């Protein structure tokens, strides 16, 4: 892809007087020398479900890049790919051919979490339970199973997560509100909603929030929308600012201060089985995901003090 595509957002200088190359080198150094920028551990292990039934809003991109940002900077992080498309597994370059121990076998109780978790080459701190195409049938197969909504929760027991020693778990959901997403919402305490800075972005959000409320009321009273991340921001359009303002007015502190810009580097990275942090550590996309990961880690170290109810 051409890096000068019209969809790429121009770099905003952070250090007046520096050349663009110096800026890029400084950003790359921050990503590549994580020992100087270790992130604080959460007061308690955090499980975040990354959900939005709208397709293509940046769920997977946010999951893998936030997870990589936390992992590279010292926090052991597990990504659960709960989407039969297997995009998170692809982006983390984790084997996910049919027959590979995956989240499907974990949901069926045939495999333990530790058996299905593969270490990503992005960081020894980054684990991924992949999704194979077998997961496509799970939505239907689960219907007739006992405790069909809490299969993932059972798999993500304290003991299983202690065995892996993880601080953070991100569950990447498919673009639907079916049983897989319900399993993710029952297993987590927090929902992270990526919102694309585009016209239809807020459409369907009401439905997502009412589903979260239903899960809260009947299956998981601890669930709340703790984090909203604005993605694919294009500063050249008024619309992007309108969406940003509207989301901030409505959700307040829950929205991360860092906004993820639309950037060709971000979209190219999965094609190389890499996160943008590995693919182009000096890019604005890498830096913004790292900044967003830092915000998440700092909230976690304060005990997630900005958490708000889903209906807020
Ligand atoms: N910041 C960004 N800049 C440019 N492209 C992006 C950005 N974030 C995501 N994309 C691209 O947009 C597309 C959709 O992103 P992604 O797959 O993360 O969305 P999703 O919500 O997981 O989609 P689905 O609903 O299909 O699971 C992908 O091609 C991705 O590379
Ligand atoms: Mg996805």
From TrEMBL:
InterPro entries per record: AAA_dom, DNA_Partitioning_ATPase, P-loop_NTPase
CDD domains associated with the record: ParAB_family
SUPFAM superfamilies associated with the record: P-loop containing nucleoside triphosphate hydrolases (SSF52540)
AAA domain span: 46-224
Signal peptide from the UniProt entry: none
Family statement: Belongs to the ParA family.
Biological role stated in the UniProt entry: May play a role in septum formation.
Protein name, per record: Chromosome partitioning protein
Source species of the chain: Amycolatopsis antarctica
């Amino acid at each position: 892809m051409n890096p000068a595509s019209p969809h790429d957002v121009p770099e905003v200088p952070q250090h007046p007087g520096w050349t663009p190359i110096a800026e890029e080198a400084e950003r790359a150094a921050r990503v590549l020398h994580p020992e100087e920028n270790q992130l604080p551990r959460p007061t308690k292990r955090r499980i975040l479900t990354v959900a939005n039934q709208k397709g293509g809003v940046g769920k997977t991109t946010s999951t893998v890049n936030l997870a990589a940002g936390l992992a590279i900077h010292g926090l052991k992080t597990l990504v659960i790919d709960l989407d039969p498309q297997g995009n998170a597994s692809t982006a983390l370059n984790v084997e996910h051919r049919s027959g590979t121990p995956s989240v499907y076998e974990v949901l069926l109780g045939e495999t333990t979490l530790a058996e299905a978790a593969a270490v990503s080459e992005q960081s020894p701190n980054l684990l991924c339970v992949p999704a194979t195409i077998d997961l496509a049938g799970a939505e239907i197969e689960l219907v007739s199973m006992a405790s069909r909504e809490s299969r993932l929760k059972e798999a993500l027991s304290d003991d299983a997560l202690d065995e892996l020693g993880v601080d953070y778990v991100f569950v990447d959901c498919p673009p639907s509100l079916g049983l897989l997403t319900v399993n993710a919402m029952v297993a987590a305490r927090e929902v992270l909603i990526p919102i694309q800075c585009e016209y239809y972005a807020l459409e369907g959000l009401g439905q997502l929030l009412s589903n979260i409320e239903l899960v809260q009321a009947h299956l998981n009273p601890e669930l709340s929308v703790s984090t909203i991340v604005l993605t694919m921001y294009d500063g050249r359009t008024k619309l992007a600012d309108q969406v940003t303002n509207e989301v901030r007015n409505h959700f307040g502190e829950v929205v991360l201060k860092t906004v993820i810009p639309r950037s060709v580097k971000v979209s190219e990275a999965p094609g190389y089985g890499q996160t943008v942090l590995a693919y182009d550590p000096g890019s604005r996309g890498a830096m913004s995901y790292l900044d967003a990961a830092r915000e998440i880690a700092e909230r976690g170290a304060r005990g997630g003090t900005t958490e708000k109810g889903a209906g807020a």
